[in-house]
């Protein structure tokens, strides 16, 4: 790709790690991945790594300028939300090209009983009508939305232990994907789960629970993704991101 270029990847996803590994193998690139720091022991990607926030779009713009970043790739989780808008604003402010890597979302198939909702609060609102024992796979950061559901029991799965506020009747399962269909079947059976709550994260690493729920006839409350920033081009995977980067630096 010519002279050394500095690429900042906003990471924390499998796609971000793959992309960092592919780009770091190019001697013409300096690759830095930024992680939010919400996971105690994150899987570190190849290349340079920084951990922690930037201080909003102004702080990110300042970092891009000071570190002479040539391209910004937002490969955060589809539900990261704020950082994606900060990235779009910061890139526009310093005139750095920006791309969002967004894995395709899940689509319901024959036999699925999905209940799409717009937020965790809406998910909590529909839960009592769907079941009594919920498998909650939305991460530890959003438990407060379900804390008032005192009559329901929750199996909460997260990478790190959640803190309060949280539902009074719950069991915490600390685990990290990818998960298997056999494993998810056993969780549903052993804990007598009658409703599943998930975010539309996409990808295969955590989709096994959807297959297990379909087989067991368990309804699924699916939190839809927040809207992406307008005007930011997207790529479905690291390969597309690499092609975008090559086009950026070739001037085509």
Major β-sheet annotation:
6 strands, parallel
As residue ranges, the low-confidence spans are none
Query: What is the assembly state of the chains in this entry?
Result: single chain
What is the end-to-end distance?
Answer: 13 Å
Shape: elongated
The run of helices and strands is EHEEHEHEEHEEEHEHEEH
Mean pLDDT: 93
Question: How are the elements arranged and paired?
Answer:
Elements: E1 5-10, H1 14-24, E2 29-35, E3 48-51, H2 56-66, E4 71-74, H3 82-94, E5 98-101, E6 114-117, H4 120-126, E7 133-136, E8 153-158, E9 170-174, H5 181-190, E10 195-199, H6 208-216, E11 220-223, E12 234-235, H7 238-250
Parallel strand pairs: 1-2, 1-4, 2-3, 4-5, 5-12, 6-11, 7-8, 7-10, 8-9, 10-11
Helix pairs in contact: 1-7, 2-3, 5-6
Structure description:
This protein has a six-stranded parallel β-sheet, with helices on both faces. It is of the alpha/beta class. The two termini are 13 Å apart. The radius of gyration is 20 Å and the shape is elongated. Strand 4, helix 3 and strand 5 form a beta-alpha-beta unit. The chain is 29% helix and 22% strand.
Describe the structure in brief:
Helix content is 29%, strand content 22%. It is an alpha/beta fold and 252 residues long.
What attributes characterize this protein structure?
single chain, 252 residues, alpha/beta, 6-stranded parallel beta sheet, 7 helices, 29% helix, 22% strand
């Amino acid at each position: 790709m010519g002279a050394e270029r500095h690429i900042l990847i906003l990471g924390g996803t499998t796609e971000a790690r793959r992309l960092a590994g592919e780009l770091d193998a190019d001697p013409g690139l300096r690759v830095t991945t930024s992680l939010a720091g919400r996971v105690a022991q994150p899987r570190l990607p190849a290349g340079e790594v920084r951990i922690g926030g930037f201080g909003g779009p102004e702080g990110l713009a300042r970092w891009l300028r000071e570190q002479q970043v040539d391209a910004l790739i937002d490969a955060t989780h589809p539900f990261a939300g704020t950082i994606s808008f900060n990235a779009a604003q910061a890139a526009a402010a310093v005139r750095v090209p920006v791309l969002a890597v967004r894995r395709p979302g899940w689509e319901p198939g024959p036999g699925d009983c999905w209940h799409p909702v717009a937020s965790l609060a809406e998910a909590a609102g529909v839960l009592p009508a769907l079941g009594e024992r919920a498998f909650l796979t939305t991460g530890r950061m959003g438990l407060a939305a379900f804390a008032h559901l005192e009559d329901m029991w929750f199996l909460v799965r997260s990478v790190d232990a959640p803190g309060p506020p949280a539902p009074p009747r719950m069991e915490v399962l600390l685990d990290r994907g990818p998960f298997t269909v056999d494993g998810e079947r056993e969780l549903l059976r052993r804990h007598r789960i009658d409703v599943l709550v998930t975010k539309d994260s996409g990808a295969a690493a955590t989709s096994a629970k959807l297959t297990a729920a379909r087989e067991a006839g368990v309804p699924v409350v699916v939190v839809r993704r927040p809207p992406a920033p307008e005007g930011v081009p997207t790529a479905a995977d690291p390969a597309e991101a690499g092609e975008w980067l090559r086009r950026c630096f070739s001037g085509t």
